[in-house]
Amino acid sequence: MSTTTPPFIKKGALFGLVSPAGRIDSDVISRAGVFLERNGFRSRRGKYVTHEHYQFSGTDEERIDDLQAMIDDPEVEVIWCCRGGYGTLRIIDALDFSRMPVQPKWLVGFSDISVIHATLQNNYNTVSVHGPMPVNLPADNNYGAEWNHLLDILQGHDIVYRTPANILNKQGTSAGQLIGGNLSLLAAMTGTRYDFDPRGKILFIEEVGEQLYHLDRMMYQLRLSGKLEHLKGLIVGHLTDMKDGKIPFGNSAREIIRNITEHYDYPVLFDFPSGHESPNEPLLMGAQVHLQVTDEGGLVVYYI
Fold first, then answer.
1. Mutual orientation of helices 212-224 and 253-261 as an angle, nearest 10°?
2. Whether the Cβ atoms of residue 55 and residue 154 lie closer than 8 Å to each other
3. Helices (DSSP H) in 198-271: which residue ranges?
4. CA-to-CA distance for 190 and 199, rounded, in angstroms?
């Protein structure tokens, strides 16, 4: 099955702003509009983008309506999810993405939005962007490099990532289709129709705020289900605010992942700058990537 890559955008492209998960302050939406306007793009707010229903940005039905409207709107070229949190898994099976392979458009987000990336890659083989969201925009408008890189990647500019040496890295060279996202969401989708086939894939994972033994359990879930065995490579992003118990687990988050993957013969790259910290570099999920890990560090190059 061939991969569908949405058309790269040009100045004046319309971004649709939606909140499929957690509630968000209206100031964040305003900052997103300012950021896009300063860079020559337009924005359109979802009808319920700042609604509140307990911890969610509107009821399930409202969030479904907003996201579906952006999927179906022929003028919208980029669907930019405003934040993560929790809630996307509750609505994913009510959404119709069948237009995406026929009239593809970009979808951008990370964390809880990993659910949508999984849907696009595993069900529709469509490329999307794991990248920063409006909630991450700095209030002082002092934008870091990842924001320029996000717009660059959407406009089709070449992106090459180089990372420094890491003692935990496993050296090697590989190529495959990049998939993944937040590890907790990947674990939650195991056994569902949004689950991934690891064959020929390079898996990216990141995590935030988890107990170390939870991380260990999720990694063993991937191992016991055969996911890790059949990968072509593994890229580990930010592991943010990981927590230990009163009785120490005995390994750091990175060591847990390294120990569980040490018997496989593919390259493993640690500390890729993407996830719940800054910089949160954008990744083209679903695209073919070349991964090289040497004693000097890592290299990630896309093939579009």
1. 20
2. no
3. 212-224, 253-261
4. 15
Residue 1, domain member (yes or no): no
Structural domain contains residue 8: no
Report the alpha-carbon distance of residue 154 to residue 166 in Å, rounded.
30
pLDDT tens, residue by residue, 204-216: 999 999 999 999 9
Residue 77 CB: number of other CB atoms within 10 A? 22
Domain span at 235: 160-303
- In order, the DSSP letters of 59-86 are -HHHHHHHHHHHHH-TTEEEEEE---SS
Instruction: For 107-162, write each residue's pLDDT tens digit.
Output: 999 999 999 999 999 999 999 999 999 999 998 888 999 999 999 999 999 989 99
State the CATH number of the domain containing residue 261.
Answer: 3.50.30.60
pTM score above 0.85: yes
Which run of H or of E encompasses 234? strand 233-240
Candidates 188, 180, 179; CA nearest to 214 is 188
Do strands 172-182 and 288-294 pair parallel, antiparallel, or not at all (unpaired)?
antiparallel
Give the tens place of pLDDT for each residue, 172-214.
Answer: 999 999 999 999 999 999 999 999 999 999 999 999 999 999 9
Q: In whole angstroms, what is the distance from residue 170 CA to residue 233 CA?
A: 10
> Based on the domain organization, do 120 and 168 belong to the same domain?
no
